User: What shape does this take?
Amino acid sequence: MLKNLINKKKESLRILLICQTMSYFSGSPLYNYTLALELKKQGHDVCMFSMWADNELQENLGKSGIMTCYTTVPKGKFDLVLISQQDHKYILDMIEADKIINIIHSEYDVESPIVDKKIDEYVAIRPQIKEHLINEHNIPENKIRVIYNGVDFERFSEKNKKSHEGDYFKVVLPCTLDTLRVPFLEYYANKANEKYRVYIYGKNYGHNILFNKWVYVNDEVFDIENYIADADIVAGILLGRINLEARAMGILSFIHDPENPTLFKKYFPKREDFDKMHNVINVAKQIIS
Assistant: This one.
C-alpha cells in the first residue's frame, strides 16, 4: 500500500483525516481520534477535518499539535488522505493528494463506501466488511485491505480498581441508547438486581426503556477507561471498540447478537494476537506501509 509514498523516502508525511462528526465518544470519531494522535506521535504532519463539538476530542488533538478544522479546507498538497463516511466527500474536489483511502467502519448505510475514481484504495476494519464491499458494492478485492481498529495501549492498560469486589457483580455497557440496541439493553435491564448491577454510559437518542433501580444510566464519558477498570464484564453488540478497550485492560467482554441478545460469545483473544491486530501503533504503521 502507498508504494509511491514509500518511494519518496519521506520520513514525515502530510496527512489529512476526514470524519463525518467528532461529536460523540464511540465508533468512527474515536477511531479517527486515536489514529490521528498515533500518526502524530510517529512524526507525521496531521490535519483533521470534521464537524466538532465542545468535548475533549478537539481539545486534545489541538494540544498534540494536530490542526483541526471544519469551515476552512487546509491548503497545500497532502501525501495521504484518509476519509470516513460520505458526508464530506465534496472536500476531495477541493484538495490535492497523492493517495486517498476510504475507511469503512461497518456494513450499515451510513458507512457506505465512496465509489469514485478519486478513491485509490479502501480499508475495511473487519473481514466481514471487506466481503460486504465486494458483494454489495462491487468493489474489486485487490483495492480493499483489512486493517483492524486500533486501541491506545498506553491509555487502555490494566489497572487494579474493583472497588466493589465481592459486594456485587458489575456490568458496564458503554453504548448509545438507540433503536439498534434496544433489545440488548432490555436484556440486561431484565437481568439487573442487587447482586447484578448494570451501568450504562452513552447518549440517549430518545428511547424510553424501562429500567429498574439496579440499572444506572449515565451520559457518555470521555475517560471510559476508568469505568471499564471497575467492571467485572463489559458488553456490547457486534464487535465494537468497547470490546477491544476492555481486552486491552484485561477485562472480559461479551459480544451480543443485536436482534437476539440471548446469543452472545465471550471476547478475550490471546494477547499476542490481539496486540498484533489492534495496537494502534501497528495499525498506523500498516496504513502507512
